[in-house]
Structures are given as C-alpha cells and as structure tokens.
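**User:**
My hope is that you can spare some time for a protein that puzzles me. This is the protein in question:
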Amino acid sequence: HRVDRRQRQMCKETATISQHLRELKNAGLIKGTIDGTSVCYCINTHNWNNSKDLLLAFLNQNETLNTLCC
C-alpha cells in the first residue's frame, strides 16, 4: 500500500512539474532541448530579465497605490 500510494504521488508530482515547465516555456521564460526521452531546460535570460523588470516596476508602484487607497 505504501509503495503504491507513493508511486501515485510521484506520478502526480511529475505531471505537476511538467505542467509548470510547459507554462514557463510557453511564457518564454525557459528554453528546452530534447535529447532522446530527456528534456534539458534552462532560463531564457533575455525574457527572464524583461519579465523581472516589468515585475519590479509593478511592485515599485506602492507609493502611487497608497495614495489611491481610501
């Protein structure tokens, strides 16, 4: 029972990781190369830095947001 339960959990974890990697790749934040049955992922540095800059600009808006709050 314990092994079956752990195997099911590992399959769910693998599926979740695959979904997250697929979404990161679709967003252009990572790149992947296929080698047989394996996929090697790395950060797409250009897109990662652009996304980081956008997020930081958004997060640094708190002074403006504080003045808009009731």
In short: Residues 33 and 40 are 5 Å apart (CA to CA). The helical segments are 2-26, 45-59, 62-68. The mean pLDDT is 83. The first strand starts at residue 30 and ends at 35.
